[in-house]
Amino acid sequence: MISRFEDIEAWQTARLLVGDVYRLTGQGKLKTDFGLRDQLQRAAVSIMANIAEGFGRRGRQEFIQFLKIARGSCSEVESHLYVALDAHLLSEPDFQALKA
Question: Which among 46, 71, 88, 95 counts the fewest CB atoms within 10 Å?
């Protein structure tokens, strides 16, 4: 049984993604594109924050709604990654690693 949001596998995966996003946005050309960098970071953080907030609401329907919002943030991260790739701010291997 899950008793804390930290026990949720999706939250754990989102936490890893946030770490990877911060690591990659802190280096190379992406580091200097402040708008895209910040958008990417905020969208990634939003994933784990919404999972945690939904869990904290203690209601099944509310939790589901927050999971849907988190999923939307996942799509936002993916879209930002395409922008970074197309603008040559992110390498193909880094893109593929984060997309996975």
Answer: 88
pTM strictly above 0.85:
yes
Q: What angle do CA 58, 9, 97 make, to 5 degrees?
A: 135
Closest CA to 98 of 2, 16, 1, 6: 16
CATH topology of domain 8-98: de novo design (two linked rop proteins) (1.20.1440)
Pairwise CA distance, residues 32 & 50, whole Å? 28
What the block records as the tokens of 92 is: 């193909």
Q: Is the pLDDT of residue 53 over 90?
A: yes
Where are the domains positioned within the chain? 8-98
